[in-house]
Amino acid sequence: MKPVKIMLEEKKIPRAWYNLAADLPNPAQPPLGPDGQPVSPQMLGKVFPMNLIEQEMSRERWIKIPEEVLGILYRWRPTPLRRAVFLEQYLKTPARIYYKDESVSPAGSHKPNTAVAQAWYNKEFGIKKLSTETGAGQWGCALAFACKLLDLECKVFMVRISFDQKPLRKMMMKVWGADCVASPSPETNAGREILKETPDTPGSLGIAISEAVERAVMDPSGKTRYALGSVLNHVMLHQTIIGLEAKEQLKIAGEKKVDVVIGCAGGGSNFAGISFPFVCDKIHGEKITILPVEPTACPTLTRGPFAYDHGDIAKMTPLLAMHSLGHGFIPPAIHAGGLRYHGMSPLVSQAVIEGLLEPRAYDQMKCYEAALLWARTEGLIVAPETSHAIAGVIDEAVRAREEGKGKTILFCLSGHGLMDLAGYDKYLNGELKEAALSEEFLRKSLESIQGYPQPQVRKTGKW
Ligand SMILES: *Cc1c(COP(=O)(O)O)cnc(C)c1O
């Protein structure tokens, strides 16, 4: 029998996060303020605690994980590395497919890895309350859980369409003690403005971010900060524990080398988590194919320009150098809520510019088909976001069969889909269709960043 579960002993858990900023040949460009100059740490100080701002700007390769954070992560980490032998058999592929199962966390996804770290650093800095946005509800749940463990209050602005489509997650947030409202909400200036213009808007992550940031910076006590579940450098950093564990586990499984690494990409965090330790190896000479997979409905890396843009629709955040569809982008209502964000992590974007990554976009129909095949071979019902990674894995495994190559494929199973069954139901009832973004829609959306400063395109040309 082939081993299907490769466990890592608790005492072998990684003790430091890996920071890709230390190894990128050309650094990601700094965020810009309203005056077009790089923002200072002080300017971000109303939004984030200073210890996380330091992490955000750090170029240290290894950053120690605080003992107390490890103490909480032990609840579910190290996560298992599993081998998808049943899918391999079904596909008759010579490829060996491994995946990090991040669905085993209490909230059901990779997001608690950073939620716990962020809550801890905020607490350490004397903060009492965190405010945030959530799309599908995964991040809201992760932060609600983390805040409860660290005794912080938690306020969540949830994108309206998900609030209506996914009531189960708001119940989970309540169980963990958070206060969750639909966004746009009447509770903030940003929300009220948008409701006045478009009362039936499905909302977007961008709008919800505006509300959550406003809530943090307007708190007269100064004890509220904002927490972001993806995109920022410190979030990518906290997620690298996924790839670092995977490396150890692949060694245990007897694998000397990985050929392909795959993750779905919304803001980039689970993808960065599984891949950055391997991007490091690639920078230092190894041959690895690294694939972020996104939806054709929100094709940030494959069709969005590399530009300076705001992280949110109300333009409260600094300008980030990233691939973007424009901050005014209101994505089609596909079920992969976590992949509906207009921007992308600046670190992931810079790695794409370098040619270290090969982004792909798949349509939701192909992804649901892949998710069903997965559920019917491997068993787990995955999150609609994760199905994008699986569609990429199946393509690579089939290609390995056609080429007769015994490749090693690693991917991040970012979360389970047990709260997302409505999407599966619609797919099975034939109610979903292809949702690729039209040229016209994209062009309109990009008008929101016309005339913005242009980041330099810096690449070595090695990859
Ligand atoms: C949020 C989420 C994603 C997308 O976010 P990233 O920051 O790109 O990882 C993917 N999968 C799941 C299960 C999620 O909850």
Tell me the layout of helices and strands:
Layout: E1 5-6, E2 16-18, H1 41-44, H2 50-57, E3 62-64, H3 67-73, E4 81-83, H4 85-91, E5 96-101, H5 112-124, E6 129-134, H6 138-150, E7 153-159, H7 160-165, H8 167-175, E8 179-183, H9 189-197, H10 205-217, E9 224-226, H11 233-239, H12 241-252, E10 260-264, H13 269-283, E11 289-295, H14 300-303, E12 306-310, E13 319-323, H15 346-353, E14 360-362, H16 364-377, H17 386-403, E15 408-413, H18 421-428, H19 439-446
Bound molecules: pyridoxal-5'-phosphate.
Can you offer a commentary on this structure?
With 463 residues, the protein is of the alpha/beta class. The protein has a domain at 5-13 and 63-108 and 233-449: 3-Layer(aba) Sandwich (Rossmann fold), CATH 3.40.50.1100. It has 19 helices and 15 strands. Strands 1-4-5-15-10-11-14 form a seven-stranded mixed beta sheet, sandwiched between helices. Strands 8-7-6-9 form a four-stranded parallel beta sheet, with helices on both faces. Helix 13 links the parallel strand 10 (260-264) and strand 11 (289-295). The protein binds pyridoxal-5'-phosphate.
Task: Provide the gyration radius in Å.
Answer: 20 Å
Low-pLDDT runs of 5+ residues are: none
Round the mean pLDDT to the nearest integer and report it: 95
Helical content (DSSP H or I, runs of 4+): 25-40%
Sheet having the most strands? 7 strands, mixed
Might you state the CATH topology name of one domain? Rossmann fold
Give the terminus-to-terminus CA distance.
Answer: 39 Å
- Secondary-structure-based class equals alpha/beta
Task: Return the CATH class of one domain.
Answer: Alpha Beta
Largest beta sheet: what is the strand line-up?
1-4-5-15-10-11-14
User: What is the general shape?
Assistant: globular
Strand tally is 15
Strand residue percentage:
5-15%
- Per CATH, the architecture of one domain is 3-Layer(aba) Sandwich
Bound ions, cofactors and other small molecules, one mention each: pyridoxal-5'-phosphate
Count of DSSP-assigned helices = 19
